Protein: DNA-binding protein
Amino acid sequence: MRALRVVGLHEDGKSIVLEDPASRTRFLLPADERLRAAARGDIARLGQIEIELESQMRPREIQQRIRAGESVEQVAASAGVSTQRVERYAYPVLLERSRTAELAQSAHPVREDGPDVQTLGEVVAYSFGVRGHDYSQATWDSWKGDDGRWVVVLRWKAGRSDNRAHWAFSPGAHGGTVTALDENAEVLLDPNAYRAPRTVRALEPARETEFQPTLDSAEPERAQLPSAEPDPDDDTREIPRVPVDPDEDATVPEPRPKAKKNHPIVPSWEDVLLGVRSQRG
Structure:
């Protein structure tokens, strides 16, 4: 880099004449605001002048847009400058937004009967615990709307979905108050609105079981359960013993066996009393 020396003020009164000592070549340097800021060592003013010259967006407008919720990248793209130049003016505003979001967590949600005893941060942390979300992964931010009111936003991720909840923050005594602005904010303020899903097991339909007794019969489909009532036609029942008086000629008529299919012939009374095997049949 070659060093130049100041010769003096140009005749137009707006430029400074510089000269190369080696080659005696002279240069003309405009005496503008940048030169005066450089002579004073005002680096911040130099950066501001660069933004003013390179874009149509003034530093004050940059800060207003940052305060309204835009990011450094969004403002830099709109202004047509690098993010490093925007960060110089955005940094104090970003600190203001972060501080406001922190204060809002200590504010009290507005209920139907007045401000809640618990703070916004306490209520939201409990709601996250009920739902099984990780509250430490949620992020708070804030910005100032066109009406001059601060809006606080909470961002968190549940599964693959990105969620947001917004509250209007009014600073004041005892931390101030917050009011829900959307459905997510209302749900987070009411932990009882969440109910964990129940696991319902599907029951198998009742199967009709048919009682099939195990019998030795060759035809089980004709088998029937034994009846409690005696069968009047069954001749295989036990025949009662009748005492006989020796002085009395008791002649008992011999009953004729009733022919019945698949039933044995019942012996006569004589065979029963005398133990004589009948030859009939």
